[in-house]
Amino acid sequence: MQQDKQPDYHPVVFRDRAAGYAFLTRSTAGSDKTIEWDDGETYPVVDVEISSESHPFYTGKARTVDSEGRIAQFERRYGSTGPGSEGGGAA
To answer: Would you say the pTM of this structure is higher than 0.85?
Structure first.
């Protein structure tokens, strides 16, 4: 392999600001911001909006969808106005 064609793969800290969670891993992502890690070393830090610590699916706080269907919910909210309905559609 040609070494000059490979991306720079280095240690990076990914930080989820919403959850106050950070983890150190290796990545090709870069950043101008740095952070001092627990081991005393300074690493580039990439701020992310969501991670496994704050994602509703992984935290068990996922929003449950009603058993009522989307069409039934729409009709309940706005009424039936389609052809053949009692709600006043085109005759």
So the answer is: no
What is the Cα–Cα distance from 72 to 52, expressed in whole angstroms? 34
* Residue-wise pLDDT tens digits, 1-34: 566 788 888 999 999 887 788 989 999 988 899 9
Q: Are 44 and 12 in contact (CB under 8 A)?
A: yes
Nearest to 19 by CA among 59, 57, 65: 59
Instruction: Name the residue with tokens 């706080």.
Output: 61
DSSP state letters, 29-58: ---S-EEE-TTS-EEEEEEES--TTT-HHH
**Radius of gyration of the chain, Cα coordinates, nearest whole angstrom:** 25
